[in-house]
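Class, carefully examine what follows:
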Amino acid sequence: MYDDIAYNSENPEPGVIRNEPNGTNVYEGVPIDYTGEDVRKDVFLDVIQGHAENVKYIGSKRVVLSTNKDNIFIFHTGLGGHDGYVEFPDSGEDTDLHGEELVSTFKKLHNRNRYKNILMYLESSHSAAMFDNHTLPHNINVLAISAGGPDEDTWGTWCDTNIEPCLAGLFSYAWMNYAENNPDGLRKSQSVFDHFDNVRDIVAHTGKEHPQLYGDWNIGKLPISQFIGYESRNSTSLETEIKLISGVSKHYTFDKDTIIKGDVTAADEHVPIEQKTNIMQSILNNIVELIIPNERIRNTILKREPIDMHQNQCFDDLLSLFNAKCINPQKDDNVKNRQEKFNMLAKLCDVDVMSIQQMTAAEAIEKICT
């Protein structure tokens, strides 16, 4: 990683990086082998090919010394282009890694028996263009998953125009958050395909990106824990007992490349300004606290995607009651407020919420707004 965020002068929390509001510090304790100008295309290719001689004077000097018994996981996030390439930080003229060059490297490694299987997650605008033209063969034991289609931009999530940067990429947050919030049994045994299907549904639901699969689909049948690891949490918490399938809430998103390139004006065209303090949100929060008093469970539930609002009697009833008791819909002309209201009320109709609620949503609305 380039490593210019944690101690950036504009970071309000030096040494801290979060990928969601009030989240943990995801920077602390992370080993970083190559930073700054050492994050280059040639270094990346040398590292995955095990060319220790080429990197002996930079970074940690570590390279991948794998055999035909090793599964390899590669996650790359950054900028990309229509022509099928991803960009590395500006460190000279040759900064773009094209799909053909990456696949050629995979073929060399395969011929040298330097891996068993490779699973690659790629997050960039037009990420699928890296492999869309049959670039990646089906017979070299490589499966690539792109954040979106060849003509799709990559979007950031947990965005706030008051501080400008987004806290995470939409795709990367979705797959990491989903993997982390699975019950222990599923974390260990879930196949790459099943993990992909759930993440694809979460991301595609936003209408921003549509993840794609390329390469050897046989790898999709393997447990994803063989690539990203598995550590039991030894937990019997309610998060696992309610069999949560966590998703990205319908918070606002920015075009990721637009944010990285610093064009905040362009981003503003996509996203209304976040209003940190508003009456609507305060009312909704108070209602939810009455329904689910346990903060840990409440926060877990609220990360989920809302149920389909259309043709759902529970949602229709709650919306009518909320509009009658809490907010005059004729004065509710803030798009952000309306969307927050719809999402929250829809989540309160989730079957898992109904099974653990302290009081019904209707009772909570009556209590708060009367």
Q: What stands out?
A: The beta strands are 71-77, 79-81, 85-87, 96-98, 117-123, 142-146, 155-159, 166-169, 212-215, 253-255. The chain has two domains: 67-268, 279-369. Residues 235-277 have pLDDT under 50 and may be disordered.
